[in-house]
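Mods, move this if it's the wrong board.
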Amino acid sequence: MCAQRMNGNELAVRFITTLTWNKIPEAAQRKARMALLDVLGATMAGTLTAIADITAGFAADVWPGTEATILWRGRRASAIGAAFANGYAANGIDIDDCGWYTKGHPGVQVFPTSLALCEAHNLSGADLLTGMVIGYEIAHRAARIWHATHEIYQACGSWGSVACAAIAGHLLRLRPEQVHHALGIAEYHAPNLPMMRDIDHPTMVKHGIGWGTMTGITAAMLARRGFTGIPSLFGFDEYYDWVADLGENYIMVDGVGFKIYASCAWSHPPINVTKRLMEEHHITVDNIARIKIIGPHETVRLGNKLPTTTEEAQFNTAWPLAVYLLDGELGPRQILEYRLQDPKVRELASRIELEESPELSELHNRGMAGDPKGGFFAIAEITLKDGRVLRSVPADAGVKYAGWTEEEVERKFRWLLKDIVEPERIDRLVDLVWHFDKASDVHELVRLATIHQVPAWLHA
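Not the wrong board. Structure tokens:
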């Protein structure tokens, strides 16, 4: 007689409660270390934003305590408070990772949750990395189900609540039945985050990152006390195949993509295709009369309105493209408020037009659903001052997922922090992260990653 098949919820609980670092395949361990270095750089750079300052002060006041460190100014708070604030810093300049099926950002929830709980409970580097792996794997699957069950596109803190509950359930050593309830509590209390409303009106609410960390940790803590929750969507028969490979197929290996530009991923293909077209024809910005970007609905939805805040600059197509063409990079110096009145960038951005392509929108939708025949394509059309018109072929030029090397991630980390912290500290952080599974605790990482003041150039 055959044993009864475990349902998806039971499979998720088993994965969360039994995974250890030495059970994780080498490819996933490697990607976890890379993801840690990438999101650490994003967090440290993100402390330069107003949102990091506001949430750091708020968290220290509302969730007081000494359990964990807020990486902006080193304030202390409860684990919930530190994760909340560090999550907003991590997403502060939108240069953090993206994930398959998520339509958003897993790392900026996975990392702050793991860090805060490991610091609060004196856990090891291997514990933090294992928590992150659990978070990524649950995030990919929870988000896929979440988007399939919600008509309105929900931002990251929604499905991220479930991923953070999984991390907290693992790191707090909850029993299987408690993890079962933690997942259901987090799912039930997950915030409603209508993403496209913030795309149309960019503000600090962004992806709701802090609410994902807060809801997930709270859910696990409640479950530990006996609070009960509904069965999670993982247990629904129609989603079994999306959960059944937990612990066997590590989606994060190829499914976590790192960004090289500090802006919404929907603005990346226009930058890449325009850069390529200019290089092919050996033209400079001085030759350009105007630029037309033809892309999917999402790229056009970002718009070309001249920004007044960093959030408006991040959720934009024209500003990131213009400032990249002038500077050759897109990081903190290009996306923070102090730069947004630069007349040269504003003038070039005002000459960028956007046009939606139904065909490219369809390819984008298929790609976001996991269809390998889909992709994030864009076309650049440049009109030169001499009247010539140059047009690129459609190019799939979005965020790079598979194929990153440690050298590339390290190069990005060093570039991102070169104007923020001293080289010696960058060297020590890099070395620490590449061997972090050997660290007995997370305290040295916290100490080196804490930013106490903004650099002088930000006020110049």
